[in-house]
Amino acid sequence: MTLSIRRQRGLVLLTVLALAGAAVLLPRTGDRALGQAQSAAMQPFSCDQPGSANPQQRRQDIQLDNGSGDFNAAGRMYPCLAGVRWHLQSGNVATSDANAAIGQIRTAYGRKFPNTVYYAAAGSRTDLYQVAFSGLQFCTAKGAPVSTCPTAGTTDIQLYADSADAPAPKAAKNYRLTIDPDQAITIGGPGVWTEVLATADSSFTVPVAQLPTATHLACGLVGGTARGGFLGIGGTCELSASDFAGGLAQWLGGGKDYTLLGVNLDLYYLVTHRENASDPYTQLPVDGSGNPLNSVQLPNTTISVG
Amino acid sequence: MEQVRRGTRWRRMALLMGASLGALGTLATLTFQQVLGFEATLVVQDGNATFSSSQITADDAAFGMAPVRLGDGTWKNVLRAGFASASLDGLCVSKTETVVGGIKYTLKLTSGDSGAGLETKAANAALDVTTLRGAGINLQGSTQLGQATTDLTTAPGAAPYLANPFGVPSTYDGGFFGPGQTGPQAYSGTGNGGHVNGQGFTGIDATRGSLTNVYGQLWQAQVTGNITLPNLRIRVYPFKDDIGFDANGTASTTPDGIDDRSCWTEARQGTYPR
């Protein structure tokens, strides 16, 4: 088949235009989606600071992870933070017994949070870490979710918030809000991504056998604390949020599942959202198949104010 | 042989009857308003109340710490649970009152169709609880923890949301005491030019909350939207307290100060309204 000169020129022009268009649209390293903007419709409360032109001066901008370790995803949250520390504790972070499982943390990533974190009225800090994971499930029975889970599951889970820890101004009368489950809880799960802003010394302990090279050396290289084992092999490794989000984090196994032997987490914010959600504020509580996006499951739980 | 007094104690009976009928009339009026679709008003106030339900599914659910001002001007911290709309499988609310002479009685409101469906509906509701227990408390969708209670959103159920629907004071003076009035503050001190913004009052915000076999102790409750209560029953019981519970929740014969026919006690024994 022979095309006329005019058609050949047209075809070449179309090809050049298509190539140019593709080059413009091709994602490049360093591109960042702006994500959804803060809006008065979704965050109507004025988290303000008198004297500032911005009526939401003290509202925190938190850029989310996309579910694969990219903390520059499109989705953002804009909480006005209470400044009250939540504490989640279970098991023993100082254990040397690699078989004393309390649960599992799945597909975890971390980073030093790059921005100053502001509380609602006064106080701020620059030392928090952002840890993201697909699920934190405590043992429900022998072998669930990991082989070393005890038969009775994990029941010693402490989750509470102490207002006394918050910087002033705060509640005139201190309180402790306690969430006390009698059974294993689950944070996150299928289709759900969870992120926390935690203190640097928040820690969790995992078997050394799950680290690269399966040695105490690997634990020590990233700043963790190794315990137990024999001749630098086996035992446990306690990793703080800062260890986990440090420069060697990817080598440590960003995105891995870890058996949890102990967790001691101090956090100021937790959010669950659909993986790589562009706008978590508008997501439905079900996935595309109609299944619920179970964010936090608390079986046989008492919530009390003391 | 010991003399046994027989017959009705009319003075005591009259007191109890008067209080009961008065309360019954108030509740019945409230109920008719609710059934007809008027905006409802306070259901219970000032503590000593309990509630239970087999299932609550609530959209735009939130839980936040909030200060409640007491009659003497001091503040009490409670957990305020609110939602834009909720469907319930059965509802029980009970409240114990004390009348002249120290006589106690318990009002009990139950609603439900005895089936497993979510037949009871309520909109724009807020419950102030000091204790809440659920066989399953499941938060779904996007859940946040750590926001100031002022920042939680529940109403009207879709954007644009109302600001601070839980009404936690956001300024230090807050106009909370009215012009020229003073009293203890809800906050430990001021800052940020008096714009305290709910700092120190932490909360949880979820797209949806699903609670199974739930019961709790109520400080106060309010429904500002419509409420539908099928098969509503209101009963008045003389106070009875022969049952208590140990730390593990096992029933004992040691009284715990809560009426045995209350929603709380029945739920702890495994009976929920349906």
Which secondary structure elements does this structure contain, and how are they paired or packed?
The complex is a heterodimer of chains A (about 300) and B (about 270).
Chain A: H1 5-25, E1 62-63, E2 76-77, E3 85-91, E4 103-112, E5 117-118, E6 124-125, E7 128-133, E8 135-138, E9 158-162, E10 176-181, E11 186-188, E12 192-199, E13 203-207, H2 216-221, E14 225-227, E15 236-240, H3 241-244, H4 249-252, E16 256-260, E17 262-274, E18 294-305
Chain B: H1 10-35, E1 42-44, E2 49-69, E3 75-89, E4 91-99, E5 103-111, E6 120-148, E7 202-223, E8 227-228, E9 233-238, E10 244-245, E11 251-252, H2 263-268
**Count of DSSP strands of chain A:** 18
- Give the oligomeric state: heterodimer
Number of helices of chain A: 4
Question: Strand count, sense and closure of the main sheet of chain A?
Answer: 10 strands, antiparallel, barrel
Which strand order spans the largest sheet of chain A, edge to edge or round the barrel?
Answer: 3-9-10-18-11-8-4-7-12-17
Q: Averaged pLDDT of chain A, please?
A: 89
What class would the helix/strand composition of chain B place it in? mainly beta
How does this structure look, described?
With 306 residues, chain A is mainly beta. Helix content of chain A is 11%, strand content 33%. Chain A contains 4 helices and 18 strands. In chain A, the strands form 3 sheets. A 10-stranded antiparallel β-barrel of chain A has the order 3-9-10-18-11-8-4-7-12-17. A two-stranded antiparallel ribbon of chain A has the order 1-2. Chain A is globular and about 75 Å long. Chain A starts with a helix and ends with a strand. Chain B is mainly β. In chain B, strands 1, 2, 3, 4, 5, 6, 7, 8 and 9 form a 9-stranded antiparallel beta sheet that branches. Chain B starts with 9 loop residues before the first helix and ends in a 6-residue tail after the last helix. The chains are: A mainly beta (306), B mainly beta (274). The interface between A and B is large, with 70 and 65 residues.
